[in-house]
Amino acid sequence: MGKKNKKDKKGKGVEKNAAKMEKKISKRSKREEEDLETLIDEFRQLDAKRTQVAEVTCSFPSPRLNASLSSHPEKDELILFGGEYFNGQKTFLYNELYLYNIKKNAWSKLEIPNPPAPRSAHQAVVVPQAGGQLWVFGGEFASPNGEQFYHYKDLWVLHLASRTWEQIKVTGGPSGRSGHRMAVCKRQILVFGGFHESTRDFVYYNDIYSFNLDKFTWTKVCPSGTAPCPRSGCQMASTLDGNIVIYGGYSKQRVKKDVEKGIVYTDMFLLKNEGKEDEDKWTWARLNPTGVKPSARSGGSLAVAPNNRIVLFGGVHDEEEEENIQGEFFNDISIYDMIKNRWFAGKLKECKGEKKKRRRGPKERETVEEANESPETRSSTEIVKEVVTEDGTVMTVKQVLNSPDTKPITEIEEEEEEEDDDEDDSETSTSIEPCPRSSAMAAIKYGVLYIYGGMFEVGDRQFTLNDLYCIDLHKMEKWKVLVETDPKTQEWLDEEESEGEEECEGAAGGEDDEEDDDSSEEGDEHPAVQPPESYSEYLSRTESYWIKVAKDNMGQNAKEKKTLKVAQAMAKTFYDSV
Q1: Tens digits of per-residue pLDDT, 350-367?
Q2: 65 neighbors 440 (Cβ within 8 angstroms)
Q3: How many alpha carbons lie under 13 Å from residue 121 in its C-beta half-sphere?
């Protein structure tokens, strides 16, 4: 009894502290939000001038992250709303609405009068009633310099049949927040967690609210049991029997004054509805799943698949060292079976040609199976991808795969393939897949997973994407690229560098100028491709040059095998760009 009372008191203490912090933030952020409300009102006035619905065909949406991607409940379409984009100097927020026609592989922009204000990190869910509805709650608006935030607490519904937006003005709902999660459970929408941030303070939530789709009323849910810690960016999904699964998430804690520490969660919870008909009686329970669990990460993308399964794609794990943060980005797939309470890696099946090349003996298969079962014995494989920008900058995208099952090519397989014909190896070893990323948008339609946009970082530079990939979850054979975009064309404006360039313009130059000149010359004077030579012919002719470039970028102490891989990746990137 003593332990139980101690836990209850601790839980109440956490709630009180959260309430105090929220009140404190509310006062401090009120002035900030008032300033941003003026800017938001300007967007609303512009939207108010639109009086007719218009659907315009377009190539594809601009790059963005933290938008929402939903599958239309009645049509072969995906619905993209909102999002944000940062170009190094300015933050852009969107309230654009796009439709992706799956059969035609075509995007269109849908302009509807009186939409919600621009936002990102909101949540959207679809329900099939009345010809289909898209429900949107919360999110954030940021000032152009990204230093002030406005957190929405409004609720909107897009009537897909009539193509009209409607704001549902009901009291008693969640406070303003972003990074929360939302799921449809029978005839209600449940909202969990999120955060609210001002210039100096922040607060994370672990509360739950329910919106009744029949009565149009908000209710705060007070489950029994131990709730998850306050967090944002977790993964949330509803089960067929009316329960809710919560996985992972992220929060910040203030270690000392002006020093914050990020926490990535890997725990799982079940919010179980134990009430009878028309009665809500919820209980929190901790889940301890088996199988191959995803590595710690935030910014992953979740979608609910058929057969009571959850699909998790990508994400990032940040290594924080004082003021320096290094991000490790992922593009792997993890699948959680909600019935078996088990995680397993979403590995691609090998085609017949690959199976012939990669036969394993019985002993080798046993070794691989043992490695898969034991997390301690699993080795990781580091995959380095190089992209050369127009100004000669070399971007290194690093991916670490923890499970041997999910490796595109293992070291054993790589050695066997090197024994095959060089030309065959160069043309067949490269597989199509989304590059590692976080904050992408995910949706599933007819058992096919779609991944759109997101971002990755190289040093201090952020690359925001607008590509579109899909993979059939039933077959798991290969990724298909529907819209491919080139990171080399990405706009990035570094304020400090641009000011430095203006001050030094016309000067004889210093070390920085020499480095810039070298990189631009390097980008302009790579060995030219001599048509009609193939990539393998080009590589054999210029490999020594690319190895030198790779060593210059990676350092002379880099391992020879890794340097060779990077050199070949750079050569391939240049060859494809010509």
Answers
A1: 755 544 444 444 444 444
A2: yes
A3: 25
